[in-house]
Amino acid sequence: MHLRDLKQYLTELEANNARPWFVMNKPRYDILREEFLEVVTDLIRQITLFDKQVAACNPKKALFRINRDIRFSKNKVPYKTRFSAGITPNDLRRPSAGGGPTWYFQIDGNGVLGVGAGEYLPPAPRLKAIRQHVLNDATGFAKVLKNKALRATYAGLLEEDKLQRPPKGFDPDHPHIEALKLKSFFVWSEVKLDINAPDKLVPQLAQAFKDALPLVLWLRGVPELETEEPADTE
How sure is the predictor about 99, in pLDDT bands with cuts at 50, 70 and 90? Predict the structure, then answer.
């Protein structure tokens, strides 16, 4: 992929984030989008070497749209200033869709490569199930947090939107209480993109994802919580 061209395009988009500019530069976008699709396609092949569950992931469905959803946002800027993709076994990239752990990466106009894995802001029932799994498999969860490869690549679990107090019903003295306060079970890393070495991008991403494999596998082992049967009113 022409990473230098992508960085330049996204930088210009950030400075001219409006439909007229986007339409005028649509040919550039289409070329870069197609190149990005090739990157994601190759990346899925590489991930499959250590995570066979993503082998059937549709690369086109892994790409996120560049259009922002501005229906309920005060920020009416129409376009994202990054190219991004989320890879999962079932093509469900968004936490709200209940898609489970995701391999995610993005490239922005500042030349920053963001890489992450896990579950970012999962819906309430899923978050509750993950927290319960922390209780039921405290030893396994501790091993994930201590994994050398994961710790070397990522700073730890993302603490964005972390609760100030323990969630209701959880022992404040539990050894993993700080993790139980989290709203995401996701690791994240940002590095400077080497725009002069495009051939290194996919191997770099694949290695970063492989380093996060213990967390993804642990999350895939989270059992769904049993729901109460509705009362018989007849």
Answer: low
